[in-house]
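Task card 7
Instruction: Convert sequence to structure tokens.
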Amino acid sequence: HLSAQCNRSADSLSLAALFNGANGANWKTKWDLTKPMNTWHGVVLNAQGCVDCLDLDGTPDCLFSQSGGGNKLGGNISGLNLNLSQIRVLNLSNNEFTGDFPAFVSKLTNLEQLFVYGCLFTGSLPTDIGSLSKLKDLNIRFNRMTGGLPSTFYNLSKLTSFISSGNSFQGCISADIVKLSELESLIINNAKFTTIPDQIFILPMLILLSLV
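Output:
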């Protein structure tokens, strides 16, 4: 069930803003903004014609089959206001962005999978990340992020996988992690957390845990 109405115009304008903000002129496979967005590299639409998946992974052997190929996204997209009301999958991994983790991500309330690993993002996770109530997979490994996990992180009750290796998170992991009862994989290597609560070890679905 999608929680927002399809707005093709808003989707198209948002993708155009991303293209312009992420050095689109230098992309290996550029978008022709004069053509329909279903022809644009890495864009998959749903039955209503809105963006369902945006896969702009910068590696040739991308997780998904449609995109990849080292498309050379870059620039500072932290201030972009993207309104992709029905998007379920966002993959911007392995690109050379600058600036903080993009705040617009927290507004994509239908997101189920978010992959932004290897992107050089700085700053911390936005405090309203907890608004992504449908999020199942969050992979932010190999960025340059700092700070602690915001208290709203523990509202991600559908989360099954959280991978954040290679960042510099610090502070405490809250005992509220017990609320993430669907969590199967928790990989937070290289972080500087000072407190690891016992509640991690009683998560009922947890299969893979790496805290080293």
